[in-house]
Amino acid sequence: MKRLHIHLSVANLDESIQFYSRLFAAAPTVHKTDYAKWMLDDPRVNFAVSTRSAQKGLDHLGIQAEDEAELQDLYGRLAGIEAPKVEQGATTCCYASSEKTWVIDPQGLAWETYHTMAQAATFGGEAAAVNGPTAASSACCAPQPKVVKISMPAKSACCAPKPSQENA
C-alpha cells in the first residue's frame, strides 16, 4: 500500500519536532541534526521536516511505493501526464537510498514518486546533473516550482487561518 509523503521546510527543527510529535502523538522515526521523519500509519503518511531549503513551508509532496511493482505502477501513471518530469533513478536523498521521479503539477508544486531501498548516512549526494526546465541542482531537492499566486476569498470558513489570525 502506497503512502502519502509530505515534506516541509522549517526554520527551527527542534520546535517543529516538538509540535509534530505532539500532533502525531509519536516521536520521529528518523531524527538528524537537519531532518526528521515520521512514518505514520494513522494517517498513513511519510511526513518529513528539514532545514535544507531557503524557502520555508511546503517543500513538496510525494507518493512512496512499498516495492518495485508499486513504483512501476506509479511510473505508468506519470507516463500519461503531460507535465515537466525529472527522472532521477537511483539516488540518495533524505538519509535514504531511493529510486525516484519528480513531476510538477499544474500549480507548480513538485511531487515525487519513489521507492526507498535502504537508509543512508548522509542527507543527499553532491549536486547531480538533472535535465529539464525545472530541475534542481541537487539530487535531493524538489525541482524548483513555478510561483503561482492564487487569490483566495478574504473571509472563508473553509480556509486555514492566516498565521496572524491563529493566536487571535
From TrEMBL:
Gene3D superfamilies per record: 2,3-Dihydroxybiphenyl 1,2-Dioxygenase, domain 1 (3.10.180.10)
Superkingdom in the source lineage: Bacteria
Membrane-spanning residues: none
Name used for this protein in its record: ArsI/CadI family heavy metal resistance metalloenzyme
Ranges of residues in domain VOC: 2-116
Matching InterPro entries: ArsI/CadI-like, Cadmium-induced_rsp, Glyas_Bleomycin-R_OHBP_Dase, VOC_core
Record organism: Thermithiobacillus plumbiphilus
